Amino acid sequence: MNKRTMPKKAEKEPKKTEEPEGTSLCVEPEVVPVKRERELCSESCIYEVYRHGLCHNHYKLSQGFVFDEAKNLYVKGKKK
After folding, report:
1. Coil, helix or strand for 35?
2. Rounded to two decimals, what is the model's pTM?
3. pLDDT for 39-71, tens place per residue?
4. Which of 74, 44, 37 is nearest to 59 (CA)?
């Protein structure tokens, strides 16, 4: 017989071992939801703090970036 006419071998099923009742491998930990307070950038700003007590927009402006509406991103500002 050649490879084309040989029958496929039957796959062996793994033996199932039954665990005795009352045994478990691990215990699922209890998860408690964490409540956190929202820390806002300032009273007039609605965004949360990103870095150094500032939101992302105010942080970029403090680093000398300018928002470009055409590119829709912050670009390095020009020196005066």
Report:
1. coil
2. 0.48
3. 888 888 888 998 888 998 899 999 999 998 998
4. 74
Q: How far apart are CA 58 and CA 55, in angstroms?
A: 5
Neighbours of 60 (CB within 10 A): 19
Between the two ends of the chain, the Cα-to-Cα distance in Å is 87
Count H helices and E strands in the chain, helices first.
1, 2
Amino acid at 62: S
Q: Which of 61, 30, 68 is nearest to 45 (CA)?
A: 61
Q: Which residues pair with 51 in a beta bridge?
A: 54
Tokens of 58: 């105010």
